[in-house]
Amino acid sequence: MSRISFTTATLPERKRIALVAHDHCKEFLLDWSERQRDKLARHHLLATGTTGLLLGRRLELPIECMISGPLGGDQQLGARIAERRVDMLVFFWDPFEQQPHDPDIKALLRVAAVWNIPVACNESSADYMLGSVLLDQAHDYRIPDYSTYLAARS
Question: Which residues bind substrate (predicted)?
Fold first, then answer.
């Protein structure tokens, strides 16, 4: 079994924060985002389709919108994480409802874990994450060393 090597990267002061919510959790995310508006306004915000449209209206902030989650938006965010173009993920998922795109959701959460980005799955963890002293400062963290990975595969 091969082991992956790691290297250090730096999360920037201005984070790229992805915001996602399942249908039954959208109102929770909207209310939470409204309470956290001042903190969120200092960062670049991304979201899956419908969630992004609702957030943009409610917060009156620019939101970079992917397509809807079930149509591939979760996978778009996952690709951005793998490209190191998303720094944090706030994903209010519904633990009581099975989703038709569950494999995409699992893949999104897996890639967030692989690339070691902070993930919040509910209001409490999102409050802690945005309350962190690290939110508005650069922060070193461990990521997979992709060049070493590729060299080992050659």
Answer: 22, 26, 48-51, 68-69, 101
